[in-house]
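Memo to structure team: turn this sequence into structure tokens by end of day. - J.P.
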Amino acid sequence: MNVAGNVAAETMLFVRTAGLGVVMGAAYDCLRIFRKGISHRKEWVDREDLVFWICAGLLFFEFLIYYYQGKLRFFEIAAVCFGAWLYQRTASPLVVRAGGKCFAAFTGLCGKCARQVCKLIKWLKNGCKRVKLQLCRRWAAATKDYRGKRTKNGKGKWQSEKRRRKKA
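Reply from structure team:
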């Protein structure tokens, strides 16, 4: 392989690795948008960062194995950092602002839907109670003639008409 072809291959690898840095920066911005939309305690933020950096390291390692047979060169690390820095200076503020608005709209829509579902469940629950009450009243009214009237002693037992006559 000639020198020009080798330089072109290294340059292409640098561009691809810088693109990986851009992707990692965008992924971290997604994490920032999520944190901005849903508040977290510090320990959860630390755990999320740990998971992010483990995934980013594994992604970088897989990238190196796929494109450069696992050989680590300093310029590849510099290219990832350059791509992330370039993304942070150019597109990141716009992405975070737009993503934050979209996430807020999405969570607001989810909140409205959840409130409507809760209202529906409450309405159904109250409706079931009303139906149950009506059925109990109708059943009591239908069985009143058959079973007799309640006693006045407060125990709430049913007595038939013949039984009351015998006691009196």
